[in-house]
Write a structure and sequence with these properties.
Layout: H1 2-34, E1 38-40, E2 43-45, H2 51-71, H3 83-92, H4 98-145
Antiparallel strand pairs: 1-2
Helix pairs in contact: 1-2, 1-4, 2-4
Length: 149
């Protein structure tokens, strides 16, 4: 289960990097796209945002939301069973039967491992969606900067 804690820490570090990358893409490409005003009859005219700009803005929000979801502190992670929990299981459920204690303890650990694995799979899926959104965002900004299609 300590391995799962390490995987969760690694995933959260990657999610933080995803937010930074999405911010950089938005800052550089979005800044270039939105900083193209021109003058017409003494009036500053900003180009309208077309579909590609809105796709880029939307996918930035999706990437950021996915990364934030991964970073949020989700409840009910169990990576270790402390001595207090083991002693309580030994006394309440097993009496002095050591074999039964091992079975109860192993079943408890397996249940926690499976629950953690299920949560990690979902968080990895959210992270994958965020990465895909970042890629779409960068492409959309580039298409918008080239003048659309």
């Amino acid at each position: 289960m300590n391995q799962q804690a390490g995987v969760l820490d690694n995933l959260r570090a990657r999610a933080a990097t995803l937010i930074a990358a999405a911010s950089l893409v938005t800052g550089f490409l979005g800044g270039q796209a939105l900083a193209k005003p021109s003058f017409s009859s003494g009036v500053v005219v900003y180009p309208p945002l077309d579909m590609w700009a809105w796709v880029a803005i939307s996918t930035f929000l999706v990437a950021a939301a996915c990364a934030v979801w991964v970073l949020l502190p989700h409840r009910h992670w169990v990576f270790v069973l402390g001595a207090g929990g083991m002693l309580k299981n030994a006394k309440d459920e097993c009496g002095l039967d050591l074999d039964r204690f091992y079975r109860v303890h192993a079943a408890y650990n397996e249940e926690n491992y499976d629950n953690n694995a299920r949560k990690l799979r979902w968080l990895w899926a959210w992270f994958g969606v965020g990465c895909a959104a970042l890629a779409v965002e960068a492409i959309a900004w580039l298409v918008y900067l080239r003048g659309g299609t």
